[in-house]
Structure formats: C-alpha cells, structure tokens
Predict the structure of Bacterio-opsin activator HTH domain-containing protein.
Amino acid sequence: MSILVEFSISTDRFALGDFISRYEGLEAELERIVPTEDRAIPYVWVTGPPETLDELTDTLDESGKTDDVTVLDDLSVNNSGNRSYLYRIEWVLDDLDIIKGIISAQGSILEGEASNHYWRLRFRFEKHQRVAEFYQYLADNEITDFTIDSIYELTNSSGRDSKTLTPQQREALTVAAQDGYFDIPRETNLKAIGDELGITQQATSERVRRGVRNVVFDTLNLPETSRD
C-alpha cells in the first residue's frame, strides 16, 4: 500500500532551492529526479528573467555541488520577457539535503514546485515504515523547518482518499474546463490557458496532463504503482 506525503520545506533544504532563493522572481517546477548512490539528477524547469537565469546557471556551475549543469530547453513565457530553462543537473548530495533522506528511505519524488521561500513536494513511500525512516533522517540531521501538509494511503477501494491533485493542477484543470479546453471542438488551447495562469505553455501542458492522469487513476481506482 503506497503512502503519499505532501510536504513543504525551506528552499535551502532542497537541491537547487538554496540557489533559487538568492534571486528574486524565479519559480521552479520539478520534472523528475533520477537518484544514484551519491548524487541525484534533477530535471527542473526554472522560470524568470533571462539574465537572472544565466546568473543562476553560472552559479550552479561554480558551486562545487554539481558535476554537470545542462540547459536542455529554453522557452519564452508569453509576452512577459521571462524565459523558462529546463535544467538537467548532476547534484552531489550532502547530509543536509532531503533528497538523500528520501533515497535512503526508498521513496520517490512525484512532483515539486518552488518559489523564493519554500518547496512544495509530493513523495511516495511503499509503506509506513519507510515514512518513519524518512522522519528519522530529518530528526538525525536536525532538519526542522518543514511542514507536513497531508499524508494518506492509496488503496484500490472505492472509498479511498482522493487527494492526488496538487493545487496547481486543480487550478489548471479548472481553467481548462471553464474555458472549453475539453469541449468538442475545443474553444481554447494550452497557450491561452497558460496566458491566463501566467505560466508557460510547457508548464500548462504538464499540469493538465498530470492532473488528468491523476483524476483518471482515482476515478478508475487503479493502483498507484501503475502510474510509473
């Protein structure tokens, strides 16, 4: 039985967050993380002024905490002058980074979003014992600046708790539905929805796709392990 944890933590406790917090006006959305024994490879979208993104790229390169920083994609954001960079980062882990704790407890990060002050993350663990191991890691490393937003089990029963939509996914799906994105024929598109939300077309596509997928899995009572 999978356990899902929704979790908020100060940016400086999570890979990349400390660097994002140094610059005003940057937002980040985690695409996925590939873990290895001593490092993690996050794929993450960061949005902001292009000159600030370039400064962030240089800072990451020179930080000593990364082995490689690659910008895989570069997209414009509406007419704001901002851009979104898709980073692939080989990140060397230390004991104060919660990614190491998640890996050691055999957990996985499903998604995450960041602003200047905190990350909001969703984890999945295979059982309660693994959640306890993660909490013990936080305690052992005196990591206290976090909030548990919710924790719940995923089962195949029709009465299971249905909390798989993040607030951002819910907002994107609401706008999409109200503006006719799911109508036949469609009355809007992802770019227009993104303009209304103030995010990129790529970010809009990700939120709508993940949100729809989560709703389908909930409605059909499919096991969480099928989502991978």
